[in-house]
Structure formats: C-alpha cells, structure tokens
Amino acid sequence: MAGAVPPDKSASPIERLIALFGRFPGVGGKSARRMVFHLLRQDEDFLRSLGGAIAGLKDGLFTCGTCGNVSESDPCPICRDALRDRTTLCVVENIDDLVSFEQAGVYNGLYHVLGGRVSPLDGQELSAENVDFFLRHLESSGASEVIVATNPRMEGDLTYFTLLEILGGRSDIKVSRLAFGLPVGGSIEFADRMTLHTALESRISARRE
Ligand SMILES: [Zn+2]
C-alpha cells in the first residue's frame, strides 16, 4: 500500500511534500511539484489552516457499522432515515460512488459500501470480512433486491460476478446491475445525474425471471 511507505527523511521538505502530493489519484510528479510551489507562494496563515484541516479531517468521523458509509454518526444518517426504501440495497465499491448517487438524488433505498473489489491485476479480491459485512447487512436490512452498482469496467464486472456467486443460493433476493447510460470504462464518480438515473432505471436483472 502506498500509504504505508514512510516519507524519506533525508529528502528536503519540498521534495517530501512533492512525494506526498504525488500519491493523490491522477496527480503525477509535475502536478505535485506545481502544487508545492503554489503553496510556497502562500502566507503562513493559509499553510497552517490547510495543515490543520488535513490533520483533523478524520476527527469526529465514523465508519457506519451497518453499511460502511463514513459520516459523523454510526449508524449513518442514511441507515437511520426511516423514510428510505428498505427493500433495496445498492452495492457500491466505495464512498465516492455513494456520494455521487446521493448528490444526483436519483435513489432512495439503502446502500452498502463494499470497501473492496475484485481486481486480479492489483491482486485484490473481496476479503472474507467484506463478504461477511455485506451478508450481515443484507440480512439485517431485510432487503429483497440487491442493485450492484460497480463500475462498468473489468474490475466492476468481476466484482459483480463474485457477488452473484455469493448470492447464488438466495433465490428470494432479486439481483440486478446498472445498465446502459454509463460509458464502458467510465466511472460512477464522474457520471452526471441523467446518466445515473438512466443506468438505475434500466438495470439488468441477473437472473431469468
Ligand atoms: Zn450506514
């Protein structure tokens, strides 16, 4: 894991920060360098408040023990909301995707954040804990439908098939997957409201009815 690598103490503060920024998704060495030189031009107050905001980012945040969402309470507001449709469980790979659905306002059921995916190229698979957590939530929610909202790319496909296998014996649970509208190779995080709405509405059942 990149996060486990200790910063190189022998490097200068500038080089250390460039290396840290370089760990952000989609940020290469050149962008990381530009960010650091931008910071060097800011005043001390800004730098201290940025540092403080980063250091305190996880203060007062909890991972929901029911669905895996991150919020200021456990259970999270979505799990606690009595007005949400408890018959449907939308399975997403990570919290970014949950936030995209919520911001689009196109779904009123429950979520389950898998917190992992199946990706043989990165040596990733769903851990026994991930699977247990999901099955416990499915049981406690009493949901009768699982919508698999994994991303339309190879890892998303493999994750979907793994979930299908896990749910193989549960003929009482309707399983579907987001359908067209999402570009192949794209990502839920960057999809607009209309696209997410279409993908949800036209979800494909995993089993012959
Ligand atoms: Zn929750």
Describe the structure.
With 209 residues, the protein is α/β, with parallel strands linked by helices. The protein has two domains: 47 residues, Orthogonal Bundle (Helicase, Ruva Protein, domain 3), CATH 1.10.8.420; 144 residues, Dna Topoisomerase Vi A Subunit, Chain: A, domain 2 (3-Layer(aba) Sandwich). It has eight helices and seven strands; from the N terminus they run H-H-H-E-E-H-E-H-E-H-E-H-E-H-E. The mean pLDDT is 88. Zinc ion binds next to helix 4.
Topology:
Layout: H1 13-21, H2 29-40, H3 44-55, E1 62-63, E2 70-71, H4 77-80, E3 85-92, H5 95-104, E4 109-113, H6 128-141, E5 145-148, H7 154-166, E6 174-177, H8 193-201, E7 204-205
Parallel strand pairs: 3-4, 3-5, 5-6
Antiparallel strand pairs: 1-2, 6-7
The chain binds zinc ion.
Zinc ion is lined by residues 64, 66-67, 69, 75-76, 78-79.
CATH topology of the largest domain: Dna Topoisomerase Vi A Subunit, Chain: A, domain 2
What do the pLDDT scores average to?
A: 88
Give the bound compounds.
zinc ion
Q: Helix/strand/pairing class, anyone?
A: alpha/beta
Helix fraction?
25-40%
SS field, number of helical segments? 8
Label the overall shape.
Answer: elongated
* End-to-end separation: 42 Å
What's the CATH class of the largest domain, please?
A: Alpha Beta
* Strands in their spatial order, largest beta sheet: 4-3-5-6-7
Q: What does the radius of gyration come to? A: 20 Å
Give the CATH architecture of the largest domain: 3-Layer(aba) Sandwich
List the secondary-structure elements in sequence, H or E: HHHEEHEHEHEHEHE
The tally of structural domains comes to 2
Characterize the main sheet.
Answer: 5 strands, mixed
Low-confidence stretches: none
